[in-house]
Amino acid sequence: MIFGLTGMVFIAMMISEVMSMSDNVAKSKDYMKEIFSYVMLMVGAMIAAFSIEEFLVPCTILDGGIVGISIMINNLTRFPLGVLTLVLNLPFLIAGMRKLGKIFIAKSAVAMVTFSSFLEIFASLTVMTEDYLLAVCFGGVFLGIGVGLVIRSGGCLDGTETVAIFLNRRFNLPVGQTVLFINIVIYTTAGFLFGFDRAMYSLLTYFITSKVIDFVETGVEQAKSAMIITNEGRRIADEIYKKMGRTVTILEGEGLISGKKVILYCVLNRLEIYQLKHLIKEVDASAFITISDVSEIIGNHIKKKADKDKV
Q1: pTM exceeding the 0.70 threshold for the entire prediction
Q2: E strand residue ranges, the chain
Protein backbone atom coordinates (compact mmCIF):
# COMPACT_ATOMS: atom_id res chain seq x y z
CA MET A 1 0.00 0.00 0.00
CA ILE A 2 2.90 2.37 0.79
CA PHE A 3 4.36 1.55 -2.61
CA GLY A 4 1.01 2.41 -4.19
CA LEU A 5 0.81 5.78 -2.43
CA THR A 6 4.41 6.60 -3.35
CA GLY A 7 3.66 5.68 -6.94
CA MET A 8 0.62 7.94 -7.05
CA VAL A 9 2.68 10.86 -5.67
CA PHE A 10 5.25 10.21 -8.38
CA ILE A 11 2.48 10.19 -11.01
CA ALA A 12 1.23 13.57 -9.81
CA MET A 13 4.76 14.96 -10.06
CA MET A 14 5.19 13.54 -13.58
CA ILE A 15 1.93 15.06 -14.77
CA SER A 16 2.86 18.42 -13.26
CA GLU A 17 6.26 18.35 -14.95
CA VAL A 18 4.88 17.40 -18.35
CA MET A 19 2.18 20.03 -18.14
CA SER A 20 4.72 22.71 -17.25
CA MET A 21 6.82 21.81 -20.32
CA SER A 22 3.90 21.74 -22.75
CA ASP A 23 3.61 24.70 -25.10
CA ASN A 24 0.29 23.72 -26.59
CA VAL A 25 -1.98 24.03 -23.58
CA ALA A 26 -2.68 27.74 -23.90
CA LYS A 27 -6.26 27.11 -24.88
CA SER A 28 -8.53 25.56 -22.28
CA LYS A 29 -9.86 23.03 -24.80
CA ASP A 30 -6.39 21.70 -25.56
CA TYR A 31 -5.59 21.64 -21.85
CA MET A 32 -8.68 19.54 -21.09
CA LYS A 33 -7.85 17.14 -23.91
CA GLU A 34 -4.37 16.66 -22.50
CA ILE A 35 -5.73 16.09 -19.00
CA PHE A 36 -8.28 13.62 -20.37
CA SER A 37 -5.56 11.66 -22.17
CA TYR A 38 -3.66 11.25 -18.89
CA VAL A 39 -6.84 10.20 -17.10
CA MET A 40 -7.55 7.52 -19.73
CA LEU A 41 -3.90 6.49 -19.62
CA MET A 42 -4.15 5.84 -15.87
CA VAL A 43 -7.56 4.13 -16.18
CA GLY A 44 -6.11 1.79 -18.81
CA ALA A 45 -3.12 0.99 -16.57
CA MET A 46 -5.47 0.26 -13.64
CA ILE A 47 -7.59 -2.11 -15.74
CA ALA A 48 -4.47 -3.91 -16.97
CA ALA A 49 -3.17 -4.28 -13.40
CA PHE A 50 -6.57 -5.65 -12.29
CA SER A 51 -6.43 -8.25 -15.06
CA ILE A 52 -2.91 -9.35 -14.17
CA GLU A 53 -3.46 -9.69 -10.40
CA GLU A 54 -7.03 -10.96 -10.33
CA PHE A 55 -7.03 -13.36 -13.30
CA LEU A 56 -3.57 -14.24 -14.64
CA VAL A 57 -1.18 -14.38 -11.67
CA PRO A 58 -3.34 -16.75 -9.52
CA CYS A 59 -3.34 -19.28 -12.38
CA THR A 60 0.35 -18.77 -13.31
CA ILE A 61 -0.65 -17.43 -16.72
CA LEU A 62 1.85 -15.00 -18.17
CA ASP A 63 1.50 -11.76 -20.04
CA GLY A 64 4.19 -10.99 -22.58
CA GLY A 65 7.24 -8.75 -22.36
CA ILE A 66 8.59 -7.30 -19.13
CA VAL A 67 5.37 -8.13 -17.27
CA GLY A 68 5.72 -11.80 -18.23
CA ILE A 69 9.33 -11.86 -17.08
CA SER A 70 8.28 -10.17 -13.82
CA ILE A 71 5.56 -12.78 -13.22
CA MET A 72 8.12 -15.57 -13.70
CA ILE A 73 10.55 -13.95 -11.24
CA ASN A 74 7.69 -13.32 -8.80
CA ASN A 75 6.69 -17.00 -8.90
CA LEU A 76 10.24 -18.14 -8.30
CA THR A 77 11.28 -15.59 -5.63
CA ARG A 78 8.01 -14.08 -4.28
CA PHE A 79 9.52 -10.62 -4.84
CA PRO A 80 6.67 -8.04 -5.18
CA LEU A 81 5.35 -8.00 -8.74
CA GLY A 82 4.69 -4.24 -8.78
CA VAL A 83 8.26 -3.44 -7.78
CA LEU A 84 9.65 -5.89 -10.35
CA THR A 85 7.71 -4.42 -13.28
CA LEU A 86 8.76 -0.89 -12.40
CA VAL A 87 12.44 -1.74 -11.85
CA LEU A 88 12.71 -3.84 -15.03
CA ASN A 89 10.93 -1.22 -17.15
CA LEU A 90 13.08 1.66 -15.91
CA PRO A 91 16.15 0.95 -18.10
CA PHE A 92 13.97 0.86 -21.23
CA LEU A 93 12.44 4.23 -20.34
CA ILE A 94 15.88 5.77 -19.82
CA ALA A 95 17.22 4.25 -23.07
CA GLY A 96 14.23 5.50 -25.06
CA MET A 97 14.16 9.00 -23.60
CA ARG A 98 16.21 10.62 -26.37
CA LYS A 99 15.07 8.33 -29.17
CA LEU A 100 11.30 8.04 -28.89
CA GLY A 101 10.19 11.54 -27.89
CA LYS A 102 9.73 13.17 -24.50
CA ILE A 103 5.94 13.07 -24.49
CA PHE A 104 5.76 9.37 -25.42
CA ILE A 105 8.30 8.49 -22.72
CA ALA A 106 6.59 10.72 -20.13
CA LYS A 107 3.21 9.14 -20.80
CA SER A 108 4.73 5.67 -20.73
CA ALA A 109 6.36 6.47 -17.37
CA VAL A 110 3.02 7.60 -15.94
CA ALA A 111 1.32 4.45 -17.26
CA MET A 112 4.03 2.15 -15.91
CA VAL A 113 4.07 3.75 -12.45
CA THR A 114 0.27 3.58 -12.27
CA PHE A 115 0.33 -0.03 -13.44
CA SER A 116 3.00 -1.06 -10.90
CA SER A 117 1.25 0.77 -8.07
CA PHE A 118 -2.09 -0.90 -8.71
CA LEU A 119 -0.46 -4.31 -9.04
CA GLU A 120 0.50 -3.90 -5.38
CA ILE A 121 -2.96 -2.59 -4.42
CA PHE A 122 -4.85 -5.39 -6.21
CA ALA A 123 -2.50 -8.07 -4.85
CA SER A 124 -4.28 -7.89 -1.46
CA LEU A 125 -7.75 -8.51 -2.95
CA THR A 126 -9.48 -11.86 -3.32
CA VAL A 127 -8.86 -13.36 -6.76
CA MET A 128 -11.77 -13.38 -9.21
CA THR A 129 -11.38 -17.00 -10.32
CA GLU A 130 -8.95 -19.91 -10.31
CA ASP A 131 -10.56 -21.57 -13.32
CA TYR A 132 -7.99 -21.53 -16.10
CA LEU A 133 -10.44 -21.06 -18.97
CA LEU A 134 -12.23 -18.15 -17.27
CA ALA A 135 -8.88 -16.61 -16.33
CA VAL A 136 -7.66 -16.80 -19.94
CA CYS A 137 -10.85 -15.36 -21.44
CA PHE A 138 -11.66 -12.60 -18.96
CA GLY A 139 -8.01 -11.85 -18.17
CA GLY A 140 -7.24 -11.48 -21.87
CA VAL A 141 -10.24 -9.23 -22.47
CA PHE A 142 -9.56 -6.91 -19.52
CA LEU A 143 -5.85 -6.78 -20.33
CA GLY A 144 -6.61 -5.90 -23.95
CA ILE A 145 -8.95 -3.10 -22.89
CA GLY A 146 -6.37 -1.70 -20.48
CA VAL A 147 -3.43 -1.85 -22.88
CA GLY A 148 -5.59 -0.50 -25.72
CA LEU A 149 -6.57 2.55 -23.68
CA VAL A 150 -2.94 3.21 -22.76
CA ILE A 151 -1.79 3.00 -26.38
CA ARG A 152 -4.71 5.11 -27.58
CA SER A 153 -3.72 7.78 -25.05
CA GLY A 154 -0.16 7.95 -26.37
CA GLY A 155 1.84 5.69 -24.02
CA CYS A 156 2.81 2.07 -23.49
CA LEU A 157 2.98 -0.29 -20.51
CA ASP A 158 5.88 -2.51 -21.41
CA GLY A 159 9.53 -1.78 -22.08
CA THR A 160 9.67 -4.35 -24.88
CA GLU A 161 7.36 -2.11 -26.92
CA THR A 162 9.86 0.74 -26.70
CA VAL A 163 12.58 -1.67 -27.84
CA ALA A 164 10.41 -2.79 -30.76
CA ILE A 165 9.75 0.82 -31.82
CA PHE A 166 13.46 1.65 -31.59
CA LEU A 167 14.39 -1.41 -33.69
CA ASN A 168 11.69 -0.45 -36.19
CA ARG A 169 13.16 3.03 -36.59
CA ARG A 170 16.77 1.89 -36.76
CA PHE A 171 16.54 -1.41 -38.70
CA ASN A 172 12.99 -1.20 -40.13
CA LEU A 173 11.95 -4.35 -38.24
CA PRO A 174 8.14 -4.67 -37.89
CA VAL A 175 6.97 -3.68 -34.39
CA GLY A 176 4.30 -6.37 -34.12
CA GLN A 177 6.57 -9.20 -35.28
CA THR A 178 9.36 -8.09 -32.93
CA VAL A 179 7.01 -8.08 -29.92
CA LEU A 180 5.61 -11.49 -30.94
CA PHE A 181 9.11 -12.99 -31.23
CA ILE A 182 10.08 -11.70 -27.77
CA ASN A 183 6.88 -13.10 -26.28
CA ILE A 184 7.36 -16.53 -27.89
CA VAL A 185 10.79 -16.73 -26.24
CA ILE A 186 9.21 -15.78 -22.88
CA TYR A 187 6.39 -18.32 -23.23
CA THR A 188 8.81 -21.08 -24.21
CA THR A 189 10.89 -20.33 -21.11
CA ALA A 190 7.72 -20.39 -19.01
CA GLY A 191 6.88 -23.79 -20.46
CA PHE A 192 10.12 -25.25 -19.13
CA LEU A 193 9.69 -23.60 -15.72
CA PHE A 194 5.96 -24.09 -15.03
CA GLY A 195 4.76 -26.65 -17.56
CA PHE A 196 3.81 -26.29 -21.19
CA ASP A 197 0.10 -26.18 -20.38
CA ARG A 198 0.77 -22.80 -18.69
CA ALA A 199 2.71 -21.67 -21.75
CA MET A 200 -0.21 -22.60 -24.00
CA TYR A 201 -2.70 -20.81 -21.74
CA SER A 202 -0.41 -17.76 -21.81
CA LEU A 203 -0.16 -17.82 -25.60
CA LEU A 204 -3.95 -18.07 -25.89
CA THR A 205 -4.30 -15.10 -23.54
CA TYR A 206 -1.87 -13.14 -25.70
CA PHE A 207 -3.96 -13.70 -28.83
CA ILE A 208 -7.19 -12.74 -27.05
CA THR A 209 -5.50 -9.61 -25.72
CA SER A 210 -4.24 -8.72 -29.20
CA LYS A 211 -7.71 -8.99 -30.69
CA VAL A 212 -9.19 -6.78 -27.99
CA ILE A 213 -6.44 -4.22 -28.56
CA ASP A 214 -7.43 -4.29 -32.23
CA PHE A 215 -10.97 -3.44 -31.15
CA VAL A 216 -9.90 -0.63 -28.82
CA GLU A 217 -7.11 0.76 -30.96
CA THR A 218 -6.60 -0.84 -34.37
CA GLY A 219 -3.77 -3.21 -35.16
CA VAL A 220 -0.50 -4.11 -33.41
CA GLU A 221 1.38 -3.50 -36.66
CA GLN A 222 -1.41 -2.08 -38.80
CA ALA A 223 0.11 0.35 -41.26
CA LYS A 224 -1.56 3.76 -41.42
CA SER A 225 -1.50 6.48 -44.02
CA ALA A 226 -1.77 10.13 -43.08
CA MET A 227 -2.85 12.92 -45.42
CA ILE A 228 -2.18 16.43 -44.12
CA ILE A 229 -3.55 19.58 -45.76
CA THR A 230 -1.70 22.62 -44.49
CA ASN A 231 -0.13 25.98 -45.25
CA GLU A 232 3.11 24.90 -43.53
CA GLY A 233 3.89 21.88 -45.71
CA ARG A 234 7.68 22.20 -45.88
CA ARG A 235 8.08 22.83 -42.13
CA ILE A 236 5.86 19.89 -41.18
CA ALA A 237 7.58 17.59 -43.69
CA ASP A 238 11.00 18.53 -42.29
CA GLU A 239 9.83 17.94 -38.69
CA ILE A 240 8.36 14.53 -39.56
CA TYR A 241 11.60 13.55 -41.26
CA LYS A 242 13.87 14.82 -38.46
CA LYS A 243 11.87 13.66 -35.44
CA MET A 244 10.15 10.50 -36.71
CA GLY A 245 12.46 9.35 -39.49
CA ARG A 246 9.54 9.17 -41.94
CA THR A 247 9.72 10.52 -45.49
CA VAL A 248 6.82 12.56 -46.81
CA THR A 249 5.39 12.98 -50.31
CA ILE A 250 4.54 16.63 -51.01
CA LEU A 251 1.65 17.38 -53.37
CA GLU A 252 0.04 20.61 -54.50
CA GLY A 253 -3.69 21.09 -54.13
CA GLU A 254 -6.35 23.74 -54.26
CA GLY A 255 -9.38 24.08 -52.02
CA LEU A 256 -12.71 25.29 -53.43
CA ILE A 257 -12.82 28.06 -50.82
CA SER A 258 -9.41 28.12 -49.13
CA GLY A 259 -7.34 28.32 -52.33
CA LYS A 260 -3.89 26.76 -52.85
CA LYS A 261 -2.74 24.26 -50.22
CA VAL A 262 0.12 21.83 -49.68
CA ILE A 263 -0.86 18.17 -49.23
CA LEU A 264 1.49 15.82 -47.40
CA TYR A 265 1.22 12.04 -47.58
CA CYS A 266 3.15 9.61 -45.37
CA VAL A 267 2.92 6.02 -44.11
CA LEU A 268 3.53 5.16 -40.46
CA ASN A 269 2.54 2.62 -37.81
CA ARG A 270 -0.15 2.85 -35.13
CA LEU A 271 2.25 3.71 -32.31
CA GLU A 272 3.46 6.79 -34.20
CA ILE A 273 0.03 8.36 -34.76
CA TYR A 274 -0.09 10.25 -31.47
CA GLN A 275 3.41 11.67 -32.03
CA LEU A 276 2.46 12.74 -35.56
CA LYS A 277 -0.67 14.59 -34.39
CA HIS A 278 1.25 16.33 -31.61
CA LEU A 279 4.04 17.34 -34.01
CA ILE A 280 1.60 18.79 -36.57
CA LYS A 281 -0.29 20.65 -33.85
CA GLU A 282 2.91 22.40 -32.75
CA VAL A 283 3.62 23.66 -36.29
CA ASP A 284 0.13 24.32 -37.67
CA ALA A 285 -2.86 23.90 -35.34
CA SER A 286 -5.24 24.59 -38.25
CA ALA A 287 -3.95 21.71 -40.41
CA PHE A 288 -6.53 19.20 -41.70
CA ILE A 289 -5.50 15.57 -41.12
CA THR A 290 -7.01 12.29 -42.25
CA ILE A 291 -5.63 8.91 -41.10
CA SER A 292 -6.56 5.68 -42.87
CA ASP A 293 -5.73 1.97 -42.66
CA VAL A 294 -3.27 0.58 -45.21
CA SER A 295 -3.97 -3.03 -46.17
CA GLU A 296 -0.77 -3.61 -48.15
CA ILE A 297 2.49 -1.83 -48.97
CA ILE A 298 4.27 -2.68 -52.23
CA GLY A 299 7.73 -1.35 -53.02
CA ASN A 300 10.42 0.24 -50.90
CA HIS A 301 9.46 2.79 -48.26
CA ILE A 302 12.42 5.11 -47.66
CA LYS A 303 13.07 5.78 -44.02
CA LYS A 304 15.95 7.39 -42.15
CA LYS A 305 17.01 7.11 -38.53
CA ALA A 306 15.21 9.60 -36.33
CA ASP A 307 17.42 12.46 -35.16
CA LYS A 308 18.52 11.46 -31.65
CA ASP A 309 19.08 15.02 -30.55
CA LYS A 310 15.73 16.39 -31.69
CA VAL A 311 13.13 13.90 -30.47
Answers
A1: no
A2: 223-230, 249-255, 259-269, 288-294
